[in-house]
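LAB NOTEBOOK - FOLDING QUEUE
OPERATOR: T.R.
BATCH SIZE: 2
PURPOSE: Compare the predicted structure-token outputs for two unrelated chains run back to back under identical settings.
PRIORITY: normal
REVIEWER: second-year student, initials M.K.

ITEM 1
FIELD SEQUENCE / FIELD STRUCTURE:
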Amino acid sequence: MPQERTEAVVLRGVDFSESSRIVTFLSPERGRLACMAKGARRPKSPLSAVLDTMNRVELVYYWKEGRGVQVVGEVALLDGFGLIKGHLEKAAFASFALEVAGKVAHENEPSRALYAALVRGLNGLAVWAGDVRAHVCWQVVQLLCVAGYEPALDVCVNCGSAVSETPGFSYAGGATCGACPADRRLTSEDYACLRALIENREACPSLRQVGSVYSLLRHYATRQLETDLSSVRVLDEMFGG
């Protein structure tokens, strides 16, 4: 059975048996990758801490074509993102980006741009000193854009007409003109904020009053991905919708 080595980010883990866990990773070459970590639940197992959610690791696994869950061979920690995990608000909002990354990734499909966007976002969040919601908005927008879910802002998503600086917004695809139905109206500040989030690919821009844009993006992501996001429900309970 061939071994493969890759860098990866731990997206989530679930208990499988008294001693093992199934861990889901995002990797550049294989996309979303599920692996059995045998013995990870045993007392004092070194795998337990290394396979913590959000960790960036170097992973060696045994690959078998056609098997849905591969087997972990070796794993070494590259970055535990302690500056995020040690900050309640950052850790909570980072879960939103991790869940979006896991939803848009495909199994056994190269995902280099998506992986790079996720790692870039986590690195930025670790040292971010501004509104945490602003940074997670940027992270989520970048992940959605890489995966092909970029919201249309220049023309109406329904009829193709030009839009003003205060357009409507449809969760089905983006901005709308005044004549087409919309889920909500955008202020000029909201519209400018969305453009900045999309256009700044390398780092989160400095933004103010992102509360309404965060609300918009959580609804947009849910509609685009056609699934409820458990991270958003938790965030609502912790910090309000």
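ITEM 2
FIELD SEQUENCE / FIELD STRUCTURE:
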Amino acid sequence: MNYYEVFNYNKYDINIKKINNYIKYCLKYLKIKNVVFNVIFIDDIKMRSINKEYRNIDNTTDVISFALEDNKDAINYNKRLLGDIYISYDKAVEQAKENNFNIIYEIYFLIIHGILHLLGYNHENDNDEKIMFELQEEILNEFKRSKKKLC
């Protein structure tokens, strides 16, 4: 059984039901079971603070994932404790406008990006980036086809 929670710590209303449905779809698509993680929506001010504190980058970003499985001292409770995904809703809105995307599409993109990071995917080199980004697009496209629309 998967357990995840979605938290909204910004001023915008977020359709948690749609997000939960999408996360369930992603986990089923990836055949992921027995995981625990959080998706946390924050604003740019908080994201900048987190980025500076943990990555020493004094700027905002769209998504940051903290993978607990990267920590070799993590306790195993017969579940995979994946970690936390922080998403800047402000940055998602900005990027959606820049790319002429629906905001929910951008949020879905950032969620699957974060989940894949928690599962160990990265984009530190061209090959890894190709693998990760192709999988992201595959999941988004399949979800879109299955739902006929993203909003």
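REVIEWER COMMENT (ITEM 2): The mean pLDDT is 91.
FOLLOW-UP: none requested
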